[in-house]
Amino acid sequence: MQPKAPDVSFLDRYHGDVFQPLYTADVTVTGGAAVHARASGVARSSDGELDVTLRLPAALGGSGGGTNPEQLFAAGFAACLHGALMLLAERSRIAIPDASVKARVVFGRDPADGQFTLVAEVRIALPGVPRPVAEALVRHTERLCPYAKMAKQGIDCTVCLES
């Protein structure tokens, strides 16, 4: 059974004075090794839908055998962009049955502070769509997708110690 897409009215602009939450994802990571200062252990969502083993990738000297934060971020980024793309295409009555979104997230050293940072690249394929139409669709998708906005504008973030 195909999932039902949100009504295109979901794209109507919000006119409020404060952030309006629509959905909250809660994920907790526990366990794992700390010797390599990289995520390991298990990541579980509060609703039980996400339950994955985190492991240091073989490319960083680990044994692999699980996913890692960069893969999870790339999956979320690609999925969010793909969803926004599909919604905008539906609204514009543009058929994109073979559309794909590939997100590449690279973990590396940050020359600004000597620590670590991420770099992302997203490639959208729209076979069969005329180039000018595809470019406009991608431009509007980038403006709609919260992951793309976060990557370009930053994100409000609070890190605190629970008591």
| CATH homologous superfamily classification of the largest domain | K homology (KH) domain
Envelope shape: globular
Mean residue pLDDT = 90
- Amount of helix: 25-40%
The CATH class designation of the largest domain is Alpha Beta
What is the beta-strand fraction? Answer: 15-25%
Order of helices and strands: EEEHEEHH
Instruction: Give the biggest sheet.
Output: 3 strands, antiparallel
In CATH terms, what is the fold-level topology of the largest domain? GMP Synthetase, Chain A, domain 3
Distance between the termini: 45 Å
Number of domains: 2
**Total DSSP E strands:** 5
Q: Poorly predicted ranges (pLDDT <50, ≥5 residues)?
A: none
Oligomerization state: single chain
Based on the coordinates given, report the CATH architecture of the largest domain: 2-Layer Sandwich
Briefly note the structural class of the backbone: alpha+beta
Instruction: Tell me the number of helical segments per DSSP (H or I, 4 or more residues long).
Output: 3
Q: Round the Cα radius of gyration to an integer and report it.
A: 18 Å
Protein traits:
20% strand, 163 residues, 3-stranded antiparallel beta sheet, single chain, 28% helix, GMP Synthetase, Chain A, domain 3, globular, two-stranded antiparallel sheet, N-terminal domain of TfIIb
